[in-house]
Predict the structure.
Amino acid sequence: MHDERFPGLRRRGFLAATTGAAALALVGCGGGTDDKAAGGSGTPKRGGRLRAAFAGGGASETLDPHLANLFADVARAKALFDKLADYGADLSAEPRLAEKWEADKGLDRWQVTLRQATFHDGKPVTAKDVLYSYRRIADPKQAFRAKASLEPIDLDASRATGERSIEFVLKRPTAEFPNILAAFGAYIVPENATEFDKKPIGSGPFRFVSFTPGRSAVFRRYDDHWDGAPLLDEIEFVVANEESARVNALLGGQVEYAHELNPTTARAHEGKGQIEIVRLRNSAMQAFCMKTDRAPFDDKRVREAFFLIADRQELVDGALSGAGEVGNDLFGKGYEYYAADLPQREQDLDRARALLKQAGAEKLKVTLDTSAVAAGFTEAAGIFRDQAAKAGVTIDVKMGSKDSYWSDILDGGTLSCYRSGAMPIEAHISQRLLTDSTTNATKWQHKDFDALYQQAQATRDKTERAAVYERMQRRLYSEGGFLIWGFADWIIGTAKTVKGVETKAPANTLDWARFDKVWLA
Amino acid sequence: MSDVTDSVAEIRDLRVEIDGRAIVDGVRLRVLPGKVTALVGASGSGKTTTGLALLGEYPPGARVTGEVRRTAHGTVGSDGPVGYVPQHPAAVLNPARRVSALLDDIARPQVRHLPRAQRRTTARALVLRALSDAQLPDAEALLRRYPHQLSGGQQQRVVLAQALLLGARVIVADEPTTGQDALTKSRVVEQLKAVAARGIAIVLLSHDLDVVRALADEVLVMRAGRVVESGPVERLWTAPRHEWTRRLLDEQRAVPQGGADVGSGRPVLEVRDLTAVHDRRTAVLHAPRLALHAGECLAVVGRSGSGKTTLARCLAGLHRDHDGEILLDGAPLPRSLRRRGRAQLAAVQYVFQDARAAFDEHRPVLHQVARTAVRLRGAEERAATDEASATLHRLGLPEALAHRRPGELSGGELQRAALARALLAHPRVLICDEVTSGLDTVTRRGILDVLAGLVGEAEDLSLVLITHDLDTARLAHRIAVLDTGELVEQGPAQRVLTEPRHPFTVSLMETTERLEAGTRT
Amino acid sequence: MSGLRSFVARRLLLGALQTVAVVLLVFALTEALPGDAAVALAGDQPDPARIAAIREAMDLDRPAYERLAGWATGLLHGDLGTSLTSGRPVAHYIADGFGPTLLLATLTLALLVPIGFGLGVLAARHEGRLVDRLVSSVTLAVYAVPEFALGVLLVTVLAIKLAWLPPTALGYGTDLLAHPAALVLPVLVLLSRPVCSLSRLVRAGMVDALASPYAAHARRYGVPGARVRYTHALPNALAPAVQQLARTVDWLLCGVIVVEALFVIPGLGTVLLNAVAERDVPVVQGLAVVFGVLTVVLNLGADLVAHRLTPRAGVAA
Amino acid sequence: MTTRRRFALGLGVIVVPLVLALLGPLLTGEPGPRATSFTLGGGHWLGTDFVGRDVWQQVLLGGRTVVVTALAATALAYLVAVPVALMSALTRVRWLEELLMRPLDVLLAVPSLLLILLVASVLAPGAVGLALLVALVNVPDAARIVRAAAGEAAARPAVEALRMQGESRWRIAVGYVGRSALRTLAADAGIRLTGVLYLVSTAAFLGVGVAPDAADWAVMVDRNRTGLFVQPWAVVVPALLIVALTTGTNLLFDAALEKNQTDKRGRRP
């Protein structure tokens, strides 16, 4: 019998981030090893064609930037289109097509001025294009990913106040409004554009040449880009879902850039001189998600016991193959507003046992949902099972379907593996930790916590706002539902000739998968 | 002409040993052009080994001493081709190739000297001539057929044509008439005679003494690998010197005659308006009325394909597709074996032509024979085994052999066991389908004796003998003659044998007599 | 011949029924899968409102039988439907994936037949001797090696270490023929197991055929050895090999996903894999139809060839 | 002589994986602390695997599931295929035969890729699910082969003779036809077991099968292959064991069949 098997389906890189998607690599964090891949050596040179391999979405792929769902989609969208803002190196929103923004007193009306930029067909980018793009995303009949992010904007009330100026009217005060402009998928397309696969027109650094879904996309330098023309003549995105295929293609000189490599691959080739390995630190938060609204995790002593069961270093070494840092049960290590002075939590099995005893949950049995949906999930589940056994907790690891995993664990189960890409801490809270959050996987629903969030959004002063965020994080640290045990590196491989690859930008930020500043030596 | 140049092949002091046991020992043989040399003997007497030695072929692992010389067209030294017509011509015809395939290959070397353009047509002409020499009409169409589309006679003639095409000066014919009816036999005899008339030497290996008498010039009688007597056929027949030769000839001549006509009273088995079909369409047999009385022996005679086996299988319940009625003691028998009760099964028993195929090769014969008593008469395992043992002994099968598996018994021994198996049912009617065809004279004699004994000793046992062989039919009280599915004649054996009425019976009788008389034209 | 024709007609009818059964089975199974296209598309952002909106946009809120009926009606008009995820016609998906698949299958087959038969005949000819033992052991060992392991090994040695061949076909997606070097490794991996099973089958058949009376008869009458082997014995060893070959072709056309993934060849297997992951039911269904028809046709072809080779065996539907 | 040597060779090849598989779990103690994944040394003489466990210990633990699952799947496939094949070979009722064999034809026409993909997603992963799935894929083919062998035996006069003797269908089917098909079955079983082992060992790709971090040779090969360049032993050792197991099985079956055949040939006069 002939056999037809396939390499697991762990091939598609869903953007691990939910909406927002960019994260700031903490400046100064991360070892010096990163620097050598950076654009330091030599003077930038123009010309050449760079081939970049990504995991992709097969024949269903599209160039519609608002439908961007996978890393490959975003990388392509980023080359063809621009957003008003994007996440910079410090994870605050950085102006892109927007030249500046300014809020009124109440933080619910924002004036945005566009810079002078043109689409690939030579037409200028105008306020009308921006409003068209946002309205398209928010279309109630459609289900674009960025719709939820744009929810605070009252698009009917917002209007163009000039050729290049817009007034956004918000439904409530939003101090972090620029984050919305940088939202994942909030790309600006020309007014009335609906068809993107034939000959898409954007304002990005590259212009369209050809596109075969699931295979390749070729773009050429756009000389009139507002941020300066790219150094490369051409960029080709090719799709290879198997990690080994991307590595092999890179080693064999068939591509110059391979996105999303395994830690072991990185270890095998780091410093061997054949290829360069770029580690983007703090790119993916790794966690176990406890449902705080049901037994046994409705008892905060049980949650704390679980915090204490985890040997985080063992999880990082085992599940991430050492490519990452330990977490402290808080999202966004190194990002703006991160509560860095809370003490690092260590494994304490005695205390964990005592807490469980107090809670009357001594011979506790829990089912841990996992799936091959993301790298390290099944490994982490196995390791945590063994760790919990030492504290007298029996964990039954249950493998779920990877295609429906996220939907399955949103409301079902009690304990599950979880991960998230980089996004501002504010976005993490608003999407996952408020009573009306759409993806509240820990079922963290507390009116007082919601109120703190509203307070932060209404606080104009940054320091004061930071203090509110810290209060919220302290609460989560002591009794939250996310057991955040680590932050994984995002690993990219490049040929030795590739220069100018940013090494400090976590996945999903502006400088990640950005090719207009890259050049070939 | 001296003797030496005259012979086309010669064997001197041939000894063939396998595992130290001589299967042919000290055989001398001279084959003269245009003459028929017959090797006669029971199975295992070494005829075939000797015959194949002329072809230069020996059984695997054999040690051969002595000399085999073949002469090509009178020149001493170089080996001339020898043709071979095996007992089952179908076995040497390639089932996956058309008839023409091997013939063309044989002709090819003979046209090699010709210019390329002429080769094909010349070769084809040679092939056609060989076929017509072998008395095969419509050769062109025949060449396009597959072996299984030919009749047995055609297959034999095709094999003969191959030998003729080869230019064989000697043809070894191995049991060419075994299992054939009288008409076919006489045709084969004519054919071989015609071949001999062309100056080709024929080595006939046969246990059919009628055919030997009709064909042979010289006869060698073999027993246990040695030639016990040889000489011209007439001398051998009239004045056999060796005791074994006499015994062979006696077995042939002495035909036990059935008892007086017992057919009276109510028939045991009665057939009314029987029409049997094959494949639900083709009618192959029509028997308006046929009756079998208690203690009577009925022979059903016909050529192969006349429908006699179908008749027997209808009676036994092995051929379901028929109309009309079969009555046992006036009560209709179900058509299918499955529907017949134990008593009905036991009442009508059937003995197969191919005894080897009718036994389970994995279990000892005794055990299989005993099962009949266990299943059909509810006998105890123990008693059944004893009875089986006794019956086998009575039929001439020693105890020691009975404990062996079928693979270790000879065809004749197995046929005795098959009879015993059927008899253990204590049947009212025993149907014997060609039970002696394919057996050598001595063995056949033994089986016929057993049958004759059965008719005599058991009052209520009726016998149906299906046969193409009038010799066997002589055992019977009554004879029914079948031709192409029609019951053409039936009556007391004496009357049918002496004054046949139907023309077909007449011709059948005549050929048989002609063969027996050994008339030579 | 009319018997043969009615046999073919019956088999085709049966094949149509088989295909229908396959499609129904596949539909039932896809319905039984956890999650649907909407959930799959939502990915790690399973906002219930968004899933509901996607579901409505994809018409997934209609009952299953209505969707099946709609799709089947389209099929009767030769329309395989449109993809849920991209809205592009399913026929395009299949046409795009079929090219590389067909190319790989053709190349593999073109090499498989001579190598498989050659090795089989060679081993049979030297039955029991060193050559036979060597061929048999090597084919046995290779047969036991999983494809991905072999693929990884070949890539590591031939492409990465020795740099003789390109490690993948990445970026050649649309035009594989222009880069023949990229096809060497995939074809090698595809060949490995079929060659083993085929040559073992051929060997077994040839051993029997060479020992048969008709082969002896041909030799007896002076037909040269090679001719006996190839024109007289081989046709008899062919029937089981042809059946095996049909199954191999079926496999080559319907799912060589390991090789496709390993070497980045965007064939039908990849299309299927993605469609199942995305719960893109029309695409899965369309592929099921194509695969079902291919299987039926190939089996029918194999049976006809086998019938031609073993004319004794009656035609059995 | 050569047959005996081949037998010995097969035995020699198979004995290492078999002993490891069956006795391995008894030879190993409690799992030690985890180290960093894919490292060599530090008391791990075959290094560590993808989650930092000792590879040697995993090898000792990991054979049983592979062997048991493969054997169970093969047995299960025949458990379904043989009765169906025997019934359809012996029945004279045309529609019953069709009823028995046609559904298998349908199964045969479902591309196994599709079947595995879908069933793998529907079934809860686990050793039982894997055995079931692998058995399901194997049933139609096994049934066809057994059917062909049994059909040949069922057409022999011996079956009619047994019927004439009033033997029960059961005894005819099992005692004779089944017995006659045994040789074909044995030959097929050798090949099928290789195929099943191969399937089981590659099913790890699908995420069917045993838990993704289970101690299981097959899973080890797949999951550790990312570390092939860093720590090859975690892949090479279990892979070699699997190859040895399948090759050994086949050598044994080949030798056994050959012996059987020569026995038979020798016995015939």
Remarks:
- The domain at 3-267 of chain D is CATH 1.10.3720.10 (MetI-like fold).
- The radius of gyration of chain D is 22 Å.
- Chain D is about 75% helix and 0% strand.
